[in-house]
From TrEMBL:
One of its GO terms (biological process) is Golgi organization. One of its GO terms (cellular component) is Golgi apparatus. InterPro entries: TANGO2 (IPR008551). It comes from Diploptera punctata (Pacific beetle cockroach). This is Transport and Golgi organization protein 2. Pfam families: TANGO2.
C-alpha cells in the first residue's frame, strides 16, 4: 500500500514550482531498505532502494537529473495465483530512470505494457520533464485497466492502490487537501511552510470510511485493519506493516531539484519510531 500526490505546471511563474510531489511508502517494517541517496550504479539518480534478497536494486520512487521520475504503487485485492514467481516490480522504476537502452518514455511504456503480466499487480506513474512540457503517463496491470499507457494532464492528481479511475476515499480526500496546500503555500518563498504542510498531509491518520472500493479490495482483512488502512498514514504493529517512509520532490521553475525523505530507523518500532531525514539536491539537465 502506498499513496502519491502530484502537482505539475508546464509554465510556472519564477517563484512557483514546476513539480511538487508527496508520497508515502507502506511496507513491511522488516524489509531491508537503503535510504534515499545518489545511486552507486548511476550517480544521476536519487531515490531509495530495496535490499530484499532477489529484489536488490529495485525502487518505489526515484528521480534522474536527466528529467525522469518513476513512482510505483501496488494494486491490492487482485487475484494472483503465485505472486512469489513474478518479477520484482521495483525494477520498473529502476529501469525507467536509469534508461540504459536510451528509450523514449513512450517506447519504455509500450514494452512495459507487453510485459506487464510478468509482475504482481501495479500502478506505475512515469514523468518525463522537458523544456517545453512535462509528460505524465499512468499504466496498470490491475484487472479493469486497459493495460495501455494513458497520458495524464498537468495539474493536481492523486494515486493509490486501486486501479486508476477508481480511487480510494483517502486518495480523493488527500488530493483535495494537497491542492489546498499548494494554493496557499506553493511558492519558493514559503518553501519551509510548504514542506511542513505536506509532511502533515503524509502523516494524516484520519479514517476515510465508508469506502466501498477499499472495503471490497480488503474483503479478506479484519475490520480493524481496513479502518487503519483507510488512513493516509497508518500502522498495524501486530502485522509488522505500515507507513514507514515519507518522500517529497520539489522542482522550481529553473529546474533546481530538492529530494526529501523521512524514513523510520531500523529496527523499526512503529509505536515510537525514530525518523531519519535526508535532503538531496541536483539540477535537471533536461532544462
Amino acid at each position: 500500500m502506498c499513496i502519491l500526490f502530484l502537482h505539475t505546471d508546464n509554465n510556472p511563474a519564477p517563484n512557483k514550482y514546476k513539480l511538487i510531489l508527496a508520497s508515502n511508502r507502506d511496507e513491511s517494517y522488516t524489509r531491508p531498505t537503503r535510504q534515499a541517496n545518489f545511486w552507486e550504479e548511476d550517480s544521476r539518480v536519487i531515490g531509495g532502494q530495496d535490499l530484499e534478497p532477489g529484489r536488490e536494486g529495485g525502487s518505489w520512487l526515484a528521480l534522474s537529473s536527466q528529467g525522469r521520475i518513476g513512482v510505483l504503487l501496488s494494486v491490492t485485492g487482485e487475484n494472483v495465483p503465485n505472486p512469489s514467481l513474478n518479477l520484482g516490480r521495483g525494477f520498473i522504476v529502476t529501469d525507467f530512470v536509469i534508461n540504459k537502452e536510451n528509450e523514449s518514455q513512450e517506447k519504455y511504456l509500450e514494452r512495459l505494457s507487453e510485459d506487464g503480466y510478468k509482475y504482481n499487480p501495479f500502478n506505475f506513474v512515469s514523468i518525463s520533464i522537458c523544456p517545453e512540457n512535462i509528460d505524465i503517463c499512468q499504466i496498470s496491470n490491475g484487472a479493469g485497466f486497459s493495460k495501455i499507457p494513458e497520458k495524464v494532464g498537468t495539474g493536481t492528481k492523486g494515486w493509490g492502490n486501486s486501479i486508476p479511475g477508481n480511487p480510494f476515499r483517502k486518495v480523493s480526500a488527500g488530493t483535495a487537501r494537497f491542492k489546498e496546500i499548494i494554493e496557499a503555500h506553493g511558492n519558493t518563498e514559503n518553501k519551509d511552510i510548504l514542506i511542513q504542510e505536506l509532511l502533515s498531509l503524509l502523516k494524516w491518520n484520519k479514517s476515510h470510511l465508508p469506502d466501498p472500493e477499499l472495503e471490497q479490495r480488503l474483503a479478506k482483512r479484519v475490520p480493524y485493519e481496513v479502518e487503519k488502512i483507510s488512513s493516509i498514514y497508518f500502522a498495524i504493529p501486530e502485522r509488522g506493516y505500515g507507513t514507514r517512509t515519507h518522500s517529497m520532490i520539489l522542482i522550481d521553475a529553473q529546474g533546481q531539484v530538492e529530494f526529501l525523505e523521512w524514513t523510520m530507523k531500523d529496527p523499526i518500532n512503529p509505536l515510537n519510531p525514530v525518523w531519519l531525514h535526508v535532503r538531496h539536491s541536483c539540477q535537471l539537465n533536461s532544462l
